[in-house]
Design brief:
1 helix, mainly alpha, 0% strand
């Protein structure tokens, strides 16, 4: 009975200690949402669009945020003129 107890205890421990197992390296952008979740999924210090794995992702497309029609970088509307009365 004692041998059966030790065998039942040792089996899960022996199977759980497989040193030959290697974890797959996680790559940013390999799963849906990786490039927009504000997390460093592959733990390389780069987040979302800053990571090479997200290059070409639709979430990382550069959008023009300057909404006015002039050439400076502020967001005013230079075409508007105020008339003082």
């Amino acid at each position: 009975m004692r041998a059966l107890y030790w065998m039942m205890l040792a089996t899960p421990l022996a199977l759980g200690c497989d040193e030959d197992k290697t974890e797959e390296e996680r790559i940013e952008g390999s799963e849906a949402g990786d490039c927009s979740d504000e997390a460093d999924n592959d733990l390389d210090g780069l987040f979302d669009c800053d990571d090479d794995g997200c290059s070409g992702s639709p979430a990382c497309d550069e959008a023009d945020t300057d909404t006015d029609t002039d050439t400076d970088t502020d967001t005013d509307t230079d075409s508007y003129t105020h008339t003082y009365t």
